[in-house]
Amino acid sequence: MFLARLLRPANVAHAHCDGPCGVYDPASARIAAEAVLSMAKKALALGDAMDPATVNTRTRFIQIKEQQADVVKHELDVLWHDYFKPEHLEKYPDLHDKFWKATKLASKNKHEIDPANGQALLDAVKDVHDIFWATKGREVPFYLANPA
Amino acid sequence: MTSKRGQSHVRLAPLLAVLAITIELAAFLVWAKYRFIRYEVSGQSMYPAYRHGDWLIADRHAYRRRLPAPSHAVIAPDPTDPTRTLLKRVVRIDLHRQAWLEGDNAAHSRDSRHFGPIPVESIIARARWRYWPVGGHRRHR
Predict the structure, then answer these.
(1) pLDDT in tens, A18-29
(2) Fold of the domain built from segment(s) A25-135
């Protein structure tokens, strides 16, 4: 230990990619994915009514679904591009495939209105969550804000 | 008397030799400390040549008589934050003595593609040897 302290450099040479905050968390993607699922469920629950109030509410739900699906894509991209490193890919060779499928699911949730797609997106985000926290050596539960 | 002086010379000789070696060693250490500087690598933008946590020795005199050349790994100040130093690789030197630096791990590097070239004179040192982890001892071009 003494030798390690003696040899340890006092200077740091930064080889960083971005700003040095280092704060990443898949929770942002999870919250947005939950919103996508919730909006699909609520929009379908409105039924086929075409009165102005229902159309207005349905439009709002769909608009939020669109926005939150984009948020999922952005949050996943940040993790994919900025957090994950080549050595993570060595350990999880299907990492790229998982991200690609997750972001494709986000797009599918924009194209269609089906809670099954929302659930699939949430499951894909959970996959990323599991890998992310495994790379940090931590066990963080994948809890849902709206478990129902 | 003559023989006593002779004996004292004999006794002094090893001491003088030790003293001379000590002085030479001290002089070498002072010179080495002045010329070389140790850095710990933080981040992955130079992967796989340098990984996060590597310890390396850089030569502050490397560019006293010559310009940095493409492929040299160098230590330079961060133009966007003067309190930080960067480890990047020289891609080219232009006619105005401006160095274009990039990380080996281009997809995960903030470098001259973001902040432009930097003056050659601002380069602090050339990264020469990685001494930790042990086994990674090799010279980097």
Answers:
(1) 554 566 889 889
(2) Four Helix Bundle (Hemerythrin (Met), subunit A) (1.20.120)
